[in-house]
Write a structure and sequence with these properties.
The complex is a heterodimer of chains A (149) and B (416).
Chain A (H helix, E strand, L loop, with lengths): L3 H4 L2 H8 L12 E7 L4 E10 L2 E10 L2 H14 L4 H16 L26 H15 L6 E2 L2
Parallel strand pairs in A: 1-4
Antiparallel strand pairs in A: 1-2, 2-3
Helix pairs in contact in A: 2-3, 3-5, 4-5
Chain B lengths: L13 H6 L7 E2 L2 E2 L1 E2 L10 H14 L9 H21 L7 E4 L2 H16 L5 E5 L8 H10 L2 E5 L9 H7 L4 E7 L11 H10 L4 E4 L11 H4 L3 E5 L10 E5 L1 H6 L10 E4 L4 E3 L13 H17 L1 H19 L5 E4 L8 E6 L4 H10 L2 E2 L1 E3 L4 H6 L5 E5 L6 H17 L3
Parallel strand pairs in B: 3-15, 5-6, 5-7, 7-8, 8-9
Antiparallel strand pairs in B: 1-2, 4-10, 9-10, 11-12, 13-14, 14-17, 16-17
Helix pairs in contact in B: 2-10, 3-10, 4-5, 11-14, 12-14
């Protein structure tokens, strides 16, 4: 039997209610908009860089608890990392939420591991991934909004 | 001794009805399924499933032109299904009943055939703010092609069409009105007869989108006096992939074909092709024969139960549901029209509809969350999405209670 807590863990509920690094970052080096047409989630991700190190990252927007908490935890996780380290983290995260078996290196994801339960809710994978897709678009400094569809 | 039997109100034997629907006995997420998404698609009774199986197991052949037994039987079954639909909506003749894939295709057919023939630059098409995307986008495409203009009649805070504004929207430029009979995201029942009368005063034909209405209330196209009426089989307890376009014969007769191909022709030469008579003119290619047969079985099933009983039962569920849902802290119902049916759409303060849907699903309760293909309605009510429970004849008060119980779990997860 699936326990509610598997998906809506305390950490997720906390980040949903009190999102970290939340708000527009004026004059950010990089910025992109993300949109999930399935549930209407919209968020923007702002990045400041020093060379290829992420010195500051914020998000802003509205959405379900999963997408908002994922964005919040993502910003905490990638701050201080290089672009390629952040890309690697996204790849690990993507595998965790989509692959049937839990990846062996899930520990490396730290707090992000709270999203492991999303794997059992395929329709919610997009909610958990929206912020990451938007972050990647911000790296590329895409001016077209990215969509999960 | 002469006894007078008092007239008793119609009562639906819901326990018996539920026995007809195999899927309702499924266990999902460890709990008995509560299916409250019939506005998206209804479940199918054994009678419909059996009709499909029987057709493929015993009667399958292509229709028309075959001189052998199976083809004659298949043709009779397909034509028989059309006859059942004709009686179901009280069309004057079978020629007025066109089989399509679904409501969407029916609307696109009218837009591209009637629309391109009769609508030109500067003309207007009048719709309402509560239309499903399928009754918006085909008209936008037509407007792009013909340089016509789409006008939208507003709705009020209850989700009712503002009739005075609607009437003001009708002008000498209006060439077509397209309006939903029963809104899929609000439950509003529009005053179609009144709308048709207003439009006809100005010689404007009216298309009615009956996708939601057709399985909740009796539809009489002659009484409504509408010019086109569209609905889909899969919301009518029938199969997917089969829909209906009713059209007034004089209009259909004058319209050019929508698609060309087999079955819709009288004769073909490389110089000149003449088209078949109605309804075949609009049914190019091998149709969904099994789907039509299944739809016929669905119509028989509904007729056998009776709309008096179905309506009374669903009215009770809607009233009960409205009452108990209102008791959930922070819940706001979207769509409170005086005349409404079947739809309980709501938002829950502090919880996104998508999270509501997932948590409710964990309790075995299936509801829909999102914009319900009515983004303008979401915008009108200032919400990104809603959660929507919709009822059909097989639902019970106990199932509504299960939904409310599940919503309390949502409340526990997302406290106010």
């Amino acid at each position: 039997m699936i326990d509610l807590r598997d998906l809506y863990q305390e950490v997720i509920l906390d980040h949903n209610k009190h999102p970290r690094n939340f708000g527009e970052l004026e004059g950010a080096d990089r910025h992109a908009d993300g949109y999930n047409p399935l549930c209407g989630d919209r968020l923007a991700v702002y990045v400041n860089l020093d060379g290829d190190v992420i010195t500051d990252v914020n998000f802003f927007g509205s959405g379900c608890a999963i997408s908002k908490a994922s964005a919040s935890l993502m910003t905490d996780a990638v701050k201080g990392k290089t672009l390629s380290e952040a890309e690697r983290l996204f790849e690990q995260f993507r595998r965790m939420v989509t692959e049937p078996e839990m990846p062996a290196d899930v520990e490396a994801l730290g707090k992000l591991a709270v999203f492991a339960g999303v794997r059992d809710y395929p329709t919610r994978v997009k909610c958990a991934s929206l912020a990451w897709h938007t972050l990647r678009a911000a790296f590329d400094d895409l001016h077209q909004p990215v969509s999960t569809e | 001794m002469a006894n007078t039997i008092p007239e008793s109100p119609p009562v639906l034997d819901v326990v018996r009805v539920r026995q007809d629907f195999p899927i309702l006995h499924r266990i999902v997420r460890g709990k008995p399924l509560v299916y409250l998404d019939s506005a998206a698609t209804t479940q199918k009774p054994r009678q419909v499933i059996d009709a499909l199986t029987h057709y493929y197991a015993h009667g399958n052949a292509n229709i028309h032109r075959g001189v052998y037994v199976l083809s004659e039987e298949a043709t009779a079954a397909y034509d028989g299904a059309r006859k059942k639909v004709q009686r179901f909506i009280n069309a004057r003749a079978c020629r007025e009943v066109i089989f399509t894939r679904n409501s969407t295709e029916s609307i696109n057919l009218v837009a591209q055939s009637f629309g391109r023939q009769n609508i030109g630059p500067g003309d207007e098409i009048l719709i309402t703010h509560m239309e499903h995307h399928s009754n918006i986008v085909p008209w936008q495409l037509l407007c792009e092609q013909t340089h016509a203009r789409l006008r939208v009649a507003p709705i009020d805070d209850q989700g009712e069409l503002q009739m005075d504004e609607f009437e003001r929207g009708l002008s000498s430029k209006t060439k077509l009105v397209a309006v939903v009979h029963l809104s899929n995201s609000l439950g509003t029942i529009n005053p179609v007869s009144e709308i048709v009368a207003m439009a006809h005063q100005r010689n404007v034909p009216v298309l009615v989108d009956g996708s939601q209405a057709a399985y909740h209330m009796p539809v009489d196209v002659q009484e409504l006096d509408c010019d086109f009426y569209v609905f889909t089989g899969h919301k009518l307890y029938g199969p997917t992939g089969i829909g209906v376009l009713y059209g007034r014969e004089t209009l259909l007769d004058a319209m050019p074909p929508y698609m060309g191909g087999g079955d819709m022709i009288r004769s073909v030469t490389f110089e000149k092709t003449t088209y078949a008579d109605l309804p075949h003119k609009f049914e190019a290619g091998t149709p969904h024969i099994a789907g039509a047969v299944g739809l016929g079985a669905a119509v028989d099933y509904i007729t056998g139960i009776g709309f008096d009983k179905i309506e009374a039962h669903e009215k009770d569920l809607l009233e009960y549901g409205t009452d108990v849902l209102s008791g959930v802290p922070g819940l706001r119902i979207i769509g409170t029209a005086r005349k409404k049916a079947s739809i309980l759409a709501f938002v829950l303060k502090g919880a996104h509809p998508h999270d509501v849907g997932t948590i409710v699903d964990m309790e075995g309760v299936s509801i829909r969350t999102g914009h319900h293909c009515t983004q303008p309605v979401m915008e009108r009510f200032g919400v990104p999405a809603t959660a929507r429970a919709s009822v059909a004849m097989y639902n019970t008060r106990q199932e509504i209670d299960r939904l409310v119980h599940a919503l309390h779990r949502v409340r526990d997860t997302f406290p106010l």
